[in-house]
């Protein structure tokens, strides 16, 4: 990179940093009057600044990183299962973000089927999964996925699935719903439904036979 180009990049980053500082100061000033809360929608300035701050937070070499995991039906199946178990609570099975958790974050979880997410490179998506995004509800999953190549591979598979989100089929979404984490109440309801369809509680049935 030439000296002039480095200066241009430094100037651009400096301008964005100054804008971010103005946004933060403005938020603090407003917050002093009415307080802070995650139940508000981000304002126009924040909506403009957030994707730009996200962009400069991702290293240039990460942006250019290609996905080493080839797409395949098996990769998609594994990624769907992983997404349903780990990601759907906030992002929904279909990536819409239309969940109780996702809607009440600040900022709300985005609809990942739309251009704002789909235009990111594979390397950018991978970096976000691994490292999270500051000042949002997106955590860093790198450590959770495990160290080394195996953990990174899980994240790359999720990138493949994110690319598939706009074309997710109703059958795939239904399959994922069976893999979503269940609350104790949901588990109890499922068990009661199984017992009803199976002709009642097996212990109760045995008790009647004994008498």
Classify the secondary structure makeup into a structural class: mainly alpha
Q: List unreliable stretches of 5+ residues.
A: 204-211
Proportion of β residues? under 5%
Largest sheet: none
End-to-end distance: 88 Å
Helix content: 55-70%
Number of H- or I-type helical stretches: 12
Radius of gyration: 23 Å
Shape: globular
Features:
globular, 211 residues, mainly alpha, disordered C terminus, 0% strand
Report on this structure:
With 211 residues, the protein is an all-alpha fold. The protein is 64% helix and 0% strand. It contains twelve helices and no strands. It has helices at 3-34, 44-57, 60-63, 73-86, 88-91, 100-103, 115-118, 122-131, 148-164, 170-177, 184-197, 202-210. The protein starts with a helix and ends with a helix.
Summarize this entry quickly.
By secondary structure, the protein is mainly α. It contains twelve helices and no strands. Helix content is about 65%, strand content about 0%.
List strands and helices in order, with pairings:
Blueprint lengths: L2 H32 L9 H14 L2 H4 L9 H14 L1 H4 L8 H4 L11 H4 L3 H10 L16 H17 L5 H8 L6 H14 L4 H9 L1
Helix pairs in contact: 1-2, 4-9, 8-9
């Amino acid at each position: 990179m030439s000296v002039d180009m480095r200066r241009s990049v430094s100037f651009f980053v400096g301008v964005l940093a100054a804008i971010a500082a103005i946004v933060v100061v403005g938020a603090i000033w407003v917050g002093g009057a009415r307080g802070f809360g995650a139940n508000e929608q981000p304002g126009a300035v924040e909506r403009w600044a957030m994707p730009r701050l996200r962009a400069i937070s991702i290293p240039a070499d990460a942006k250019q990183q290609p996905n080493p995991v080839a797409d395949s039906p098996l990769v998609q199946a594994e990624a769907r299962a992983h997404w349903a178990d780990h990601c759907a609570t906030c992002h929904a099975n279909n990536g819409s973000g239309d969940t109780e958790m996702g809607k009440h974050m600040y900022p709300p979880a985005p609809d990942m089927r739309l251009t704002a997410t789909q235009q990111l490179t594979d390397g950018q998506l991978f970096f976000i999964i691994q490292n999270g995004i500051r000042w949002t509800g997106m955590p860093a999953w790198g450590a959770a996925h495990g160290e080394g190549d195996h953990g990174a591979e899980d994240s790359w598979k999720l990138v493949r699935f994110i690319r598939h989100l706009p074309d997710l089929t109703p059958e795939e979404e239904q399959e994922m719903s069976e893999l979503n984490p269940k609350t104790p109440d949901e588990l109890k309801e499922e068990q009661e439904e199984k017992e009803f369809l199976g002709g009642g509680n097996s212990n109760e049935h045995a008790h009647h036979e004994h008498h």
